Amino acid sequence: MKLSSKSVLATAFMFCAIGGASQVQAADTLAKIKSTGKIVIGHRESSDPISYVVAGKPVGYAIDICNNVANEIKKELKMPHLKVEYKAVTSSTRIPELLSGNIDMECGTTTNSIQRQQQVSFSTNYYATEVRMAVKAGSNIKSIADLNGKAVVTTQGTTSDKYIKMNEKGQAVNVQNVYGKDHADSFAMLASGRAAAFVMDDNILAGLIAKSSNPKAFAIVGPVLSSEPYGIMLPKGDTKFKAVADRVVVGMWKSGQMDNLYKKWFESPIPPKHTNLNMAPSSSFKKLKARPTDAGI
Hints:
By secondary structure, the chain is an alpha/beta fold. The protein has two domains: 5-128 and 229-290, D-Maltodextrin-Binding Protein, domain 2; 131-227, D-Maltodextrin-Binding Protein, domain 2 (3-Layer(aba) Sandwich), CATH 3.40.190. It contains eleven helices and 15 strands. The strands form five sheets. The protein has a five-stranded mixed sheet, sandwiched between helices. A three-stranded parallel sheet has the order 5-1-6. The protein has a three-stranded antiparallel sheet with strand order 2-3-4. A hairpin with a 3-residue loop joins β2 (46-47) and β3 (51-54). α4 (61-77) crosses α9. It is globular. The relative contact order is 0.19.
């Protein structure tokens, strides 16, 4: 999901405040990794099934991909015992953590956007999401128009809010926009009735519903508000590091390994509750599969 303009400006300010040293450090991430003897992977805590935590361990579709990248880096640097560390990030902290060098790459649900490319780089895209909304089953909410006069939650640091507002203008819908600190908090607001709908990437919504106490109590409804590609977020301009990540991701698309990962995380029982999301590949995913690219939106 995209960052809001406010968050991007705040991140840009932080980037300027960091100073030249971090920028130089990020220019050759492979050299940094070789020097420190470790690679630090940024991950999300509640973006099931892409990137989340089970029993204190990061797991998910993106984590499997990034672990493959880490293994490729071990070969590239001839360091088979390279240490792999994980650091949790949020929608608001992911870019600052990368710019400051606290993480070497981010493997979560970050939209590869032209706006973000001003600060960071992205690998070849490994997933394409479709933005929709989750509601309580039986709420009779089926479209954006049905949200008129109701509270709608989005996660702080994202722009689901933008898509609501775009539809508000077109359909004269007036909603109360509220924000969760992370995806789990946003979903809790929907579950408790503090919000009538939660607008977010469909894979995130499906994951949160699947691990809820009563999955049948929720439904994903409404039109596709946006189609957005996910890529591994990398330090800007580090062509050597990006080449390694691209080699892995493109290879997974071509070999069919990405299809296998999709079946593993979207069409099979997943931890912690062994729930099957039963989420068929979207048209956006199929389009990316047919032509893998690192293009942003």
